[in-house]
Amino acid sequence: MNKKNIATKLLSIFFWISIPFAQIEFHVTWTPYVTYYLSMVDINTGESNMPIFMAELSREDANATQPVNVDIEFEIIIDSDALGVENETLVRVETTQPLQLTAPIHLTNMDLNLSTDMLFDTEGNQVELNLDITEQMDLTEAEQMMSLIVQTGQLPNGIYTFRVIATAENGQQIIREDILNISNPELLQLVSPGGILADTTINEVYTSYPVFQWESDPCNYIDPSTGESGCQYFIRVAEFRSDEHASVDQAIESVTRLPLDQSLGFQQVGFGMTTFQYPTDGGDLEPGKVYVWQIRKDIVTTVGTEELLSDIMAFKIKDFASTESDEVDMEDTSPIGIVLRSLMGDALADRIFGPGGQAEGMVPNGNITLNGENIDLSTVQSILSSGISTIDEDGNETFKQIEVISVEVSE
């Protein structure tokens, strides 16, 4: 055997030795939240009262007879431009002596604290656990962050990395991370229909099945059971009775039209929704009556689900049969006539179709087009209630109310 072949074999042996074979398996599942409270982890002890991750640690060879020594590390890293904090460790907890792994072990972040000194594997064996806080943020040096935490108790907006590492005795290392862009939701604002109670005469709705619209900041949340994204929204609609209710708050807490089941409190809308069509099985909202509505937003946090309530809006269903207004006697009360009048407004409709108007005595022929395409009456009613849908450059959908620019009449 020549020297060249000997060198090649030695090099091959060197590389074979330097690559660690798999000794362990480490499976981690992260628990989704929208808002994280600082109380989820005590940076002085590592103690946590809410699950951030759940993991199973096991030997790669389940039939092996010798235990495998494994070190565990859990770290939270924060990056927030607004706070002037760049990739700083909030807290790091790690073992000071390796775990002796024989049978699989189930562990969570709640196990990784200074008061826990023992775990049990799936066969009931005790596994000694020795931990220490090896790094933590000095909050006295982050006054802005500390101020926000004191005010809200929440981790401020920013990018957070939750990292858990398992390192076997042969150097095999398995890293699992969950990187979150935390933005604590605060905005929940009603858009239409309606306004304040005193303005219901100008906040009239021309359909018994209005489209409700609101604005809210997005939630970085995916429901683990359905896979749907965003926070979950709920709606409540009730009639305002002036002889019973002194305020919209009293009305919204009274018997509801939506949901019909009074035990529910709020009707489920869905995840990530900002519009909702009043359902046909909800019972007609009656002409001439005033209704109030409110939206609830459920936010999943590390201390449970929090409910964010919007303000309350009031609106009135227009009564075209009422004699209390100055409507003309020959007003067209057909569905298409009602839609046309709602588009134009009463004053302009009376001027054109009323006595002496250019279109006196005329009625709509029922043909409706939008951008040259035929559409049905229900589409127009939906547009009247919610407005015209537009998508901005970020992909967000907003609705713009219709404005009548001109009216053309043909015989």
Note the topology.
Layout: H1 3-18, E1 24-30, E2 53-59, E3 68-80, E4 85-97, E5 99-101, E6 105-108, E7 118-120, E8 126-128, E9 130-136, H2 143-152, E10 158-168, E11 173-182, E12 188-192, E13 204-205, E14 211-216, E15 232-240, H3 248-252, E16 256-258, E17 267-271, E18 275-277, E19 290-301, E20 304-309, E21 313-317, H4 335-344, H5 346-353, E22 369-370, E23 373-374, H6 377-386, E24 388-391, E25 397-400
Parallel strand pairs: 13-21
Antiparallel strand pairs: 1-2, 2-6, 3-4, 3-5, 3-10, 4-9, 7-8, 10-11, 12-14, 14-18, 15-16, 15-17, 15-19, 19-20, 19-21, 22-23, 24-25
Helix pairs in contact: 4-5, 4-6
Number of helices: 6
Shape: elongated
SS-based structural class?
mainly beta
- Describe the sheet with the most strands: 7 strands, mixed
Helix content: 10-25%
User: Low-confidence runs (pLDDT<50, min 5 residues)?
Assistant: 6-19, 323-329
- In percent terms, what proportion of residues is strand? 35-45%
**CATH architecture annotation of the largest domain:** Sandwich
Q: Briefly, what CATH class of the largest domain?
A: Mainly Beta
Radius of gyration: 32 Å
**Count of beta strands:** 25
**Mean pLDDT metric:** 78
